């Protein structure tokens, strides 16, 4: 496995990303099939293709206002647009010519990306990285209005996997995990 590789559950039409919210936003999104008020598209929103990283972030769907984990299936075109219009959220000499060029790219980019350690069933950091994709208001409007194909509540699945892991039934917990695999075809022109 490469250190930095986007892994996700996907099919020919969609890629699954995850977000965690409180009950009101989650219920309204599930009813509407997209995010509606009180979701605020004018704020930066982060999507995560890694189920286990979402479990780390939400504490297995137990943290306040993160009690509901949603699986959002978005179009490949939406993910492609996000990546092609992104900038690393921090300066990296491996990617940017200078801090000034990074700052210029950051201010012009509607999407931020960062690579954080992937997590295992015990939420321990792993040597490979999971991508987090931050959508600015411009990108968030595309996400809400164009990219979302369907939204599913995977909170019960999160609780079931966590209970299996806590009980020591690791084979069953692993079998329930979403099957994530490298999801960037050669047609994506992206190099962060």
TrEMBL record:
Superkingdom assignment: Bacteria
Cited InterPro entries: DUF4291
Record's protein name: DUF4291 domain-containing protein
Source taxonomy: Bacteria, Bacillati, Actinomycetota, Actinomycetes, Pseudonocardiales
